[in-house]
Predict the structure.
Amino acid sequence: MHNYLEFEKPIAELEGKVQELRHLTGSEEVNIADEVGKLQTKVEKLLKSTYAKLSPWQKAMVARHANRPHTVDYIRDLITEFTPLAGDRAFAEDSAIIGGMGRFRGESVVVIGHEKGADTDTRIKHNFGMAKPEGYRKAQRLMKLADQFHLPVVTFVDTPGAYPGIDAEARGQAEAIARSIEVCLSLKVPMVSVVIGEGGSGGAIAVATANQVLMLEHSIYSVISPEGCASILWRDKEQNQVAAEALRLTAQDLLKLGVIDSIIAEPLGGAHREPAAAIATVGEGIENALAEYAGLDGGVIKAKRREKFLEMGKHGLS
């Protein structure tokens, strides 16, 4: 059963009619196969037209959809022999960021990603994907491990932002994020990051300062959430849509701006409708991105990443 978003109400009504008709399949008096087929065609057309013209605010809603595949789903389907590694070796284990070693299509890699959780218990366990300093220090530890053993780094980005609590600030949240960015830039191994849902602020870029940054078609990546922006600028949550427009947070805008490198297409109606298909497509995107760095010297890989970020800001929206 789908969890429909506000703008999907017409789609929900049509799909509801399809389900009602399918429940009548036992009746010999009514031949409903043709009618179901016609309605299903209407559903697909409506999905296509709706998702072709999503506003930035609507894309934010899709990016946050509860049924979107999470980092644990990508690891389960794409990474074999995954061995999770926990703790920052200094303070604690932070479940908002998970990571470890495994094989991606036969090649050993280090995988790191935000995990939001899928239900009440796991969301609390993973703190809704909002990492504390120890989470970013764990990420640093794993990236350095990858560098030491010459393993590519793959990261999955899905966070509203770093945890803003007093305890996190007391333990050096800003320093931990800055240090993570520094470690990303220092790596002599390929690093590929995929924004699979929300890419929120420094909490996202801490593990996304990569050679290649990919974004799912309906994900978002921004310096602040639309709600946070509206609260600061207008002190009015009704301005969320205006803020979303101004932030240029969609994959399409960010590709034009040169902030990301490519967009990964989602199944019709979003990744939450066909998670397995979305995960498979992401796998292809990661494989293609990593292939660009095969055989390159570590110094060249590091220099290419540095040049990529120095180039940012020279592009504008047409």
